[in-house]
Amino acid sequence: xxxxxxxxxxxxxxxxxxxxxxxxxxxxxxxxxxxxxxxxxxxxxxxxxxxxxxxxxxxxxxxxxxxxxxxxxxxxxxxxxxxxxxxxxxxxxxxxxxxxxxxxxxxxxxxxxxxxxxxxxxxxxxxxxxxxxxxxxxxxxxxxxxxxxxxxxxxxxxxxxxxxxxxxxxxxxxxxxxxxxxxxxxxxxxxxxxxxxxxxxxxxxxxxxxxxxxxxxxxxxxxxxxxxxxxxxxxxxxxxxxxxxxxxxxxxxxxxxxxxxxxxxxxxxxxxxxxxxxxxxxxxxxxxxxxxxxxxxxxxxxxxxxxxxxxxxxxxxxxxxxxxxxxxxxxxxxxxxxxxxxxxxxxxxxxxxxxxxxxxxxxxxxxxxxxxxxxxxxxxxxxxxxxxxxxxxxxxxxxxxxxxxxxxxxxxxxxxxxxxxxxxxxxxxxxxxxxxxxxxxxxxxxxxxxxxxxxxxxxxxxxxxxxxxxxxxxxxxxxxxxxxxxxxxxxxxxxxxxxxxxxxxxxxxxxxxxxxxxxxxxxxxxxxxxxxxxxxxxxxxxxxxxxxxxxxxxxxxxxxxxxxxxxxxxxxxxxxxxxxxxxxxxxxxxxxxxxxxxxxxxxxxxxxxxxxxxxxxxxxxxxxxxxxxxxxxxxxxxxxxxxxxxxxxxxxxxxxxxxxxxxxxxxxxxxxxxxxxxxxxxxxxxxxxxxxxxxxxxxxxxxxxxxxxxxxxxxxxxxxxxxxxxxxxxxxxxxxxxxxxxxxxxxxxxxxxxxxxxxx
Length: 760
Ligand code: ADP
Ligand code: ZN
Fold this sequence. Notes:
Elements: H1 2-7, E1 22-26, E2 35-38, E3 52-57, E4 60-68, E5 83-84, H2 93-105, H3 110-117, H4 132-138, E6 143-151, H5 163-175, E7 178-179, H6 180-187, H7 191-199, E8 203-211, H8 230-245, E9 249-255, H9 261-274, E10 278-282, H10 290-300, E11 304-307, H11 313-324, E12 330-333, E13 345-351, H12 368-379, E14 382-387, H13 392-399, E15 404-408, E16 419-424, H14 434-445, E17 449-453, E18 460-465, E19 482-484, E20 489-491, E21 498-500, E22 513-518, H15 520-530, E23 536-539, H16 549-558, E24 564-567, E25 580-585, H17 599-611, E26 622-627, H18 633-639, H19 643-657, E27 664-672, H20 675-696, E28 700-713, E29 716-725, H21 728-741, E30 748-754
Helix pairs in contact: 2-3, 5-7, 8-9, 17-18, 18-19, 20-21
The protein binds adenosine-5'-diphosphate and zinc ion.
The site of zinc ion (ZN) has 7 residues, from loops.
């Protein structure tokens, strides 16, 4: 944190009575610097820090962010700004300090940080023939017509429509439909590419009326605070002392599944509101947690802003303004909500703090869990990291006293943890073992519910040609295609490339393809065959892509119109199904095989969470874990509820192998369309880093360049260099110096990921 603090002082935000003539402007581009502009007489009163300005940049007009006025300016002839786009500042002094810290910590341009932090509906790109003001106004209207782009039915063209067009196509396919505004924001001017894609039939376009539809308020019954049990009471008192003292305090609320963590959040927030403060609640994926948001609404009624991924840019902007104006005192949202313009924050909660989705995987690669701690420090708030399976690094931080540990070791009303049996599947051929089949039948018969978990979607994870022995693979990515029987397609889970399936072998045209590796679709079919009378639901990203489908599935489980829920890790997340007494896990080691030092940690967390779905109601739960690797400590510890054993062993491994929390990591990713160029550039980067490392005498281990585990992704070849440092300061110095000395190659993309979570 020290090196970042130092850079906070480089720019002085002037609060002078006389508006300055020269201003410093951050531009949302990948440039490691800010720019100086002159303010013309007519705009002097308006060009104040925190507002956006339309500025000339090369031959373009861009929206920049006015930061303040530079202490001195050596720019010979600064250009004049053209327009000021806001009548009020977009950020407070506190928030500005936060943004600068983020830029420095993640070594990311400030302009890009501001763009990420502010709602998308607010930014205006350079547009011909429209003044900035007009462009800014379009987002304020409540209904208008907008072009939407949808995936077309055209076949893959023989000739590639170009890499930018392909990228645009991927984005459209990924989201199903996209308004033109979003595409413009993401790709600058995508018009030529969109035209070509339309001509090829790969994309179609339609005009739609867009309405602002702020989140529909479900009617909820008010509920009252519960009388807390001893451990909850102790946790609440500790958290409340932060509010009483107006002091930053970071907590790890470590409570087993069903121990009443959410009740502690609710009462702590209630205390914060009573102190005249506001509350920020970060959740992994808001679409997956309708139950949680429902409980907040039931307890607090109005005054809650919910920032979920289903909001359009305009709706998001509306919510943002509502928060900015102080109309919402509780904000619940996924990772980007850490930037919410909430003032007087008394408490920040990070629910399921171990979830990888708090980390943004492109652009500004921030981790909302880590930023919550930083923002809390700046706001002098309580920060509560809650989980039944905390990060290994959090457990270590608690042991060292950097987080205050609050434990809820028992389930509410002393309900027992489920009993778990490990079933050794070595030498066995069936998907569902005999004991699991029997218990499932009994459970359904007695009117109770079961969950069957398999962390793979699709029908078969590979199709193998019986004649030539080749696997059906994606032409754009170095992964195999997954066979989805209902869709009648084999699909790449990374780029969404698909071919009709089962089809024929693309290598030798043989018609007989063998299905290997069962996914949830196959599992569902097996269960239907074995238990013809059971009402079975499947929940994975294939069955939940439609709007509201997720909630529909959950409500069928809740009202008892379903007996068995089959699904991927989606079913492991925070759901409270009191009727579930049996949980079956197929292939407990699925996630152990990942080439990632966190594989054991993820497996332990996932299994513990799935196990925790059983027996949350009055009847005790039972779990059958089917595994081949029955001796692995991650599986054994999860099965025996022996968290201490897992964390001890995992920390030992991290210490020996030199991974966090004992080192600090950064991942440099080097990718491009030419294998040769990527490989050369990666080698050169590594040599330069090694030289700088010697010069600076920093303690850093350089690993690589190595091919990334997914060597090809969306047509790009990928190599990576992992930096392991003894201190953050060393890591920072090395990367900054390397940035200054390295030369960009236009065909190569180089990314820097600080504290990487995804090493694939
Ligand atoms: P967690 O968030 O740790 O999984 P929850 O807060 O969801 O646990 O609590 C599990 C269940 O127990 C919920 O239905 C909740 O309403 C209930 N509960 C929580 N605390 C209490 C309490 N002190 N007394 C009675 N019921 C409680
Ligand atoms: Zn692919």
